[in-house]
Design brief:
elongated, five-stranded parallel β-sheet, 10 strands, 20 helices
Length: 458
C-alpha cells in the first residue's frame, strides 16, 4: 500500500467519526482514491455527478484539511465524477439532470502559479462573470473588482460582511481569480478562519510556527472567510493580528469576510477590530426577489436539458428568501426529486417536494392581507371579492387573489374558498389554473401578479 493510500485510509476513518455513520455511508463511503505517485495533488472520484456536487458543497475544504493533517505536503484535493460504468448506485444519473452553474465534473482547482508561489484552492465557478449584481451588492462587487485589478493598492483591508449565502465567498474566489490573472507570479492564499486556526494549531504541535508565519505573511493577497469563527480563540487571535498587521503594513492586499460588521464581532479583540475597520467596510444586504430570480434563471440556463417552469422559479424566488445557498439547494432538491421519481416538474410537484422548506420560510402572509392589497391594486371594495358578481373587472382580481392565497399561505383549498364568500374548493382550483395559464399569455395579468408578489413579500 502506498503512503497516499495509507493516508486515505486514515482520512476515511476520521471522516466516519466526525460525520457520523449515516452521512458517511450515504455520501462519503463511495469516494474512491485515484492512487498515484504524486502525494501533493490528490484526486478523488464518485460514481455520479449528483454525489460529486454534494460532496464538493459540504466536504471539499474538510477533505483538504484531513489530508494535510496526515500528509502536510498535500496542496489540493480534486473531486471528480468517475467515468460512467455499471454501478449499483441508486443515485447515479446523467449530470445534466441536476442544475449547476457549470458542469459538475469541474472540481475546485489550484490556480496555476510559478514554482514557489502559493496555489490557492479556488472554485472555477465563482468568478466575477457569474456574480449576479443588483443594488444590494453592487458596492461590494465594485470594491472587490477594484482590489483585484493591477496597479497600486487603493485600500486594504477590504472587509465584506453579510448574512450566510449572500455572495461573500463568491467574491473572495472572484478576487483571487482576477488578481492571479493580472499578477501571474503572485503569492495568494484563500482560507477560512477555521482553516487558519487548524493550520496554526498543527504548526504549534509540530513546533514549526515559523514556516506557517512565513507562508501567510509572504502573501501578496490574503483572503480569509468566516472570520466570526475566530471569536474567543485568544492564542489564535494573537497570531491572526500579527499576520494581518504585517500584510497591511507591507502595503499588500487583505480581504476579510464575516457575517457581521467588525464592531459587532463579539469575542474578537479590539485591536483586530480596529485594524479591520481601518480599511473599507462594505455591507452585502439581503437579496431582492429580482436577484434571486436571476440566479435561478442562470442555474437553469447552465443545464440545457433541464426544464423548470417559470411559475416554479417564481415560487422559489419569492418564498426562499433567507439566502442564495438555500435557494439553490431548493432548486437542486426539486430537480433531483424529479430525476429520482420520474415526475414532471410543475408548481404542485415543487410545492409538495419543498413542503417543509416552504413552511419554514413562510412570512405568515394572511388571506386578509392579500384581499386588501388586491382591492387597492384594482380599486375595488372588499365586498366585491366575496360577492357573487361575475363581471371580469371583479372576477379576474378575485381569481388573482385566490391564486396568491394558494401560493403564499398554508391554507387549504376549502379554507381559501370560505374566505372568498363560501366558494367551493373546485372554484379555487379553477382560479389558480386560470391565472397560471394567463401569466404565460397575458402581460397585464403577469405584471399585476409580479407587483402584488413583491408588495406582499415586503
Amino acid at each position: 500500500m502506498s503512503e497516499l493510500a495509507r493516508a486515505w485510509a486514515r482520512v476515511r476513518a476520521n471522516l466516519r467519526r466526525s460525520a457520523g455513520a449515516r452521512v458517511f455511508d450515504q455520501w462519503l463511503a463511495p469516494i474512491t482514491l485515484v492512487d498515484g505517485d504524486d502525494q501533493t495533488d490528490v484526486r478523488l472520484t464518485l460514481p455520479s455527478a449528483f454525489m460529486t456536487n454534494w460532496v464538493k458543497s459540504h466536504y471539499a475544504e474538510r477533505l483538504v484539511h484531513e489530508f494535510r493533517a496526515v500528509l502536510p505536503g498535500v496542496r489540493s484535493v480534486a473531486i471528480d465524477t468517475a467515468p460512467r460504468i455499471a454501478a449499483p448506485m441508486v443515485l447515479a444519473a446523467p449530470a445534466a439532470v441536476v442544475a449547476a452553474p457549470v458542469p459538475l465534473s469541474a472540481p475546485p482547482v489550484a490556480a496555476a502559479a510559478p514554482v514557489g508561489a502559493e496555489r490557492p484552492l479556488l472554485d472555477p465557478r465563482l468568478n466575477f462573470g457569474r456574480f449576479v449584481v443588483d443594488p444590494s451588492n453592487v458596492v461590494a462587487l465594485n470594491a472587490a473588482r477594484a482590489l483585484a485589478e493591477r496597479g497600486p493598492v487603493r485600500f486594504s483591508p477590504l472587509f465584506l460582511h453579510g448574512g450566510t449565502g449572500q455572495g461573500k465567498t463568491h467574491l473572495l474566489n472572484a478576487i483571487a481569480h482576477d488578481f492571479l490573472a493580472a499578477h501571474p507570479g503572485a503569492r495568494v492564499m484563500l482560507l477560512s478562519a477555521e482553516r487558519f486556526m487548524f493550520e496554526f494549531v498543527a504548526a504549534m504541535r509540530s513546533r514549526d510556527t515559523f514556516a506557517f508565519k512565513a507562508k501567510l505573511r509572504g502573501c501578496d493577497l490574503l483572503l480569509i472567510d468566516d472570520l466570526q469563527f475566530i471569536a474567543g480563540k485568544d492564542v489564535t487571535q494573537d497570531e491572526f493580528f500579527h499576520t494581518i498587521n504585517e500584510i497591511i503594513t507591507a502595503g499588500k492586499r487583505l480581504v476579510i469576510a464575516a457575517d457581521r460588521a467588525p464592531q459587532a464581532l463579539d469575542g474578537v479583540e479590539s485591536r483586530i477590530i480596529g485594524r479591520l475597520g481601518s480599511g473599507l467596510v462594505v455591507d452585502i444586504r439581503p437579496s431582492s426577489p429580482e436577484l434571486r430570480r436571476e440566479v435561478l434563471s442562470r442555474r437553469v440556463a447552465d443545464t440545457p436539458d433541464l426544464r423548470v417552469p417559470d411559475d416554479v422559479l417564481d415560487l422559489l424566488a419569492t418564498r426562499m428568501t433567507s439566502n442564495i445557498r438555500e435557494l439553490e439547494g431548493a432548486l437542486t432538491r426539486v430537480t433531483a426529486y424529479a430525476m429520482l421519481t420520474g415526475a414532471t416538474i410543475d408548481l404542485e410537484f415543487a410545492t409538495q417536494t419543498l413542503g417543509d422548506m416552504l413552511r419554514g420560510h413562510q412570512r405568515r402572509v394572511t388571506i386578509d392581507q392579500i384581499q386588501k392589497l388586491v382591492c387597492e391594486h384594482f380599486e375595488l371594495k372588499p365586498i366585491d371579492l366575496i360577492s357573487a358578481r361575475r363581471a371580469r373587472a371583479v372576477a379576474r382580481p378575485r381569481q388573482i387573489a385566490m391564486y396568491l392565497a394558494k401560493r403564499l399561505t398554508t391554507r387549504s383549498l376549502p379554507e381559501i374558498g370560505r374566505k372568498f364568500g363560501g366558494r367551493d374548493h373546485s372554484t379555487v382550483i379553477h382560479a389558480v389554473r386560470r391565472i397560471e395559464g394567463l401569466r404565460d399569455t397575458d402581460r397585464d395579468v403577469d405584471l399585476a401578479v409580479r407587483m402584488l408578489l413583491g408588495q406582499l413579500e415586503n
